[in-house]
Amino acid sequence: METCQSGLSCFLAKEVGFTPPEVRILSSPPFRASTRHLPRAGFFVTMTSMKEILALLADWANGIFAVVLASFITSTEVVWWHFLIGILIAMCPDLDAIPELIKRKRLAASAEHLSDHREGLHYPVIFLVVGGILVYLYPFYGWMFLIAVMLHFINDLYGTGWGIPLLWPLTDRRYKLLGRRVNRMKSILVEDGDWEKLPDSERRLRLIVSWEKKELTSYIQKWGMENWINRYYLNINWISGIEYGLFMFAIVLIFIY
Length: 257
Ligand SMILES: [Zn+2]
Fold this sequence. Notes:
Layout: E1 2-4, H1 8-16, E2 23-25, H2 38-54, H3 57-74, H4 80-91, H5 98-104, H6 124-137, H7 139-156, E3 174-179, H8 186-191, H9 200-203, E4 206-211, H10 213-223, H11 228-233, H12 238-256
Parallel strand pairs: 1-2
Antiparallel strand pairs: 3-4
Helix pairs in contact: 1-2, 3-4, 3-7, 3-12, 4-7, 6-7
The chain binds zinc ion.
Zinc ion (ZN) binds next to helix 7.
């Protein structure tokens, strides 16, 4: 008999009461698979596989904003497929996540996986140079590229991730805005019983947070979360609120532009 503490099977079993016969949850009494739960379980399978998309909505919004702004700057008429290109460009810095996605089938910096993917392509200076050249050669697409990737980096500077190496190549320090060095929201720290154990210096919400490369690894080991999508995006908090709000605003913008 297999046991599980995380993953889809456990999520289904815990949330829906459905479990494949070969899986049993640790610390829970055994229960039987029941066809009674199947329609509800099917809904949660869909929701579980869709939830990764929730973390992408802000980048989709960034792509749409980039198209509208580039069109405004260069007086170019927008057609519908420009938005598809803008959305793809806005996600392109995250191509550095593909090796981890292939290997682990998920994305998370945690004790199970100590490195954060934002060390591959999250170097704003490179994109500034490439974007500057593209603006010179193809103004509309150049501005679209430049704005989309810069908005991506702004999005990575707050919220759920471990910041970006903003000032590379001057330093490989990671920077983040409006966060704690433990990189968790107060509500999550309180919920997990960690808030009371933290010293004041770690509780403090900082305008600018930064980690040296070595200390980033130790913080990820202690405070990284495998289930960050569930904790942040399946709840409404200031991070998911901003990102969902940006996405809804971008959709409205498509229709009125
Ligand atoms: Zn990113």
